[in-house]
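Notes on consecutive records. When two proteins share a document, each keeps its own sequence and its own token line. Never mix them. Below: protein one.
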Amino acid sequence: QVQFVESGGGLVQPGGSLRLSCVGSGANVSNYVMAWYRQAPGKQRDMVARIFRTGGHTDYATPVKGRFTISRDAAKNTVYLQMNDLKNEDTALYYCNSLGSVNWGQGTQVTVSS
């Protein structure tokens, strides 16, 4: 069964940084377009970043562009989301998934607050 397990969330002050990790279980993250999503209370789940299979091409949602970086370590079968200059509005439950999959993991909570 293909699963992606997220970790690395926490409580951070505005302007701080966090790095989220997403480990593939039963799946090689290099074989998929991988994406990070987030869902704030009362809002829909939105994609914030994705990384393509070949060439490492990435793209980002406008609210996080220039602050977040998605990357992949094939040897560790892990996708990362480096989040810098965090803002209160980045507070959400963050998920990773292969593009188009409807099987969601538990996510990891990111709370930005002073």
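Protein two starts on the next line and is unrelated to protein one.
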Amino acid sequence: QVQLVESGGGLVQAGDSLRLSCAASGFTFSSYDMGWFRQAPGKEREFVAAISTYYANFVKGRFTNSRDNAKNTVYLTITRLRPEATAVYYCAARPRAATGYDYWGQGTQVTVSS
């Protein structure tokens, strides 16, 4: 059974840092690229980061996507959080060289207060 379980979200203040985790199981983690998406209230889900080199324009160097294959876990580290970062953050997995994501997590809420 494939599972992606995000954690690490919560209520933080503007300017704080946060590290989200996504624990994967049920598939060959090392054969998949991992990405992050987010959905803010009233908005569509949007791309945040993929692999370790592709980031949305709004990231501006404040987000880092990394992974630990030994732990089957991917991380999204966010620094200098802004209130507009408030959203549910999702991790997703896609086979290497594929364009679509096969697996999605349930999301973790990040709320940034000003």
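For the record: The CA atoms of residues 11 and 34 lie 25 Å apart.
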